[in-house]
Amino acid sequence: MRRREARRDPWQPNNSVRTSQSGSAMKAFVAALLFAAIAAVGMSILLNIIQEPSSVAFTTGGARVGDPGNNLVGPNG
Amino acid sequence: MASLGRFIRLTVGACAFLLVIAASVPCKAQQVNPTASSVNEQQLLQELNRIQGRVSIPDQRSGVLEQPAGRDWREFRNVTLRWIGGITIIGMIAVLVIFYLTRGMVRLESGRSGRTIVRFSAFERFVHWMTATCFIVLAISGLNITFGRPLLLPLVGFEAFSEWSQWAKYAHNYLSFPFTIGVALIFLMWIAGNIPNKVDIDWLKRGGGIVGHDHPPAYRFNAGQKAIYWIVVIGGGAVAVTGYELMFPFYLSGIEGMQLAQIVHSIVAVLFIAAMLGHIYIGTIGMEGAFDAMGTGDVDLNWAKEHHSLWVEEEQAKGHAPSGGTSRPVAAE
Fold this sequence. Notes:
The complex is a heterodimer.
Chain A: H1 2-7, H2 15-50, H3 54-57
Chain B: H1 2-29, H2 34-37, H3 41-48, E1 51-52, E2 64-66, H4 69-103, E3 116-118, H5 122-156, H6 158-174, H7 176-190, H8 198-205, H9 223-247, H10 255-283, H11 291-295, E4 298-300, H12 301-307, H13 309-318
Antiparallel strand pairs in B: 1-2, 3-4
Helix pairs in contact in B: 4-10, 5-6, 5-7, 7-9, 9-10, 12-13
């Protein structure tokens, strides 16, 4: 069995090689997708930590609302 | 007697009233209206090219009330850009369809040898696909910003369009980071093989094997691939820099700089999309055997010899590739 493997032309693809090549292609593609997703989510978390929301950054203490995103006079206003 | 007294008082009062009125008329005629004679808004705008005041909130930039360059930019964004983008992208699709119908797929003339040569490593393919997938999402979400409102909104309605656009914007912002990493890695990874040389001139003169019908010699990257490389590096760099200028407003420039950044970003982006459509075409249905390079990483030796003969000679000299190649053609699968 080992002899047969040793004799096989290393440049000649066979079915098992082709299957492993397809697997390798998928691995590179899936790894690329995973890395892109992780990098994107990681940057969103990092930026959310570093940056202030506009309701804090662009208002004075007097005008700051208690529940940004609802409305200025509250839910019952 | 009493009535005479009342008459006199009434007459004197009337005369006094008339005197006050008569005295005030010429005085009123000579009054100057300070508001009318002061510098008005239009004059300020002509002199300063913007109207700016002071505001009590922390962001002093919100004090800009009028900035006429914004109207020119809005005209570009809502009208001119849609024409440029539409013509460029639809034009490229039309050219590719016509080209495919007339030229068809570029076939392997010598057939498949059954022997393969490593074209791209796993890391190279990883970087390519990371950049490519990010680019596709960025392109679709970017086109939504320009064309979504006139084309998609009437089809899906306000709620669905609003929801989709919000998520598309998140994807556009955050996937820009892995895209930029990908462009930087592509630049570093393939710069050595993408410096233009004399071989490229001959390759271009002979139509590169896709317009013409022969196979001019090429090293690892031919002139067409070098063009794509520099489009990705320069175009990708330009959209990244201008995109971050827009994503982090006022860090790098004022409002005029951001308007200019948006113009550069959008024009480069639509040209980039058109170029990548051509790249995707050649890498898939345009050329037999080309997808294997970025699929499995290995290409058939005959494919490599037809399209990159000088590179194959280099690889054979290093012992990285089998010799021969055209002697044992096998049917394409």
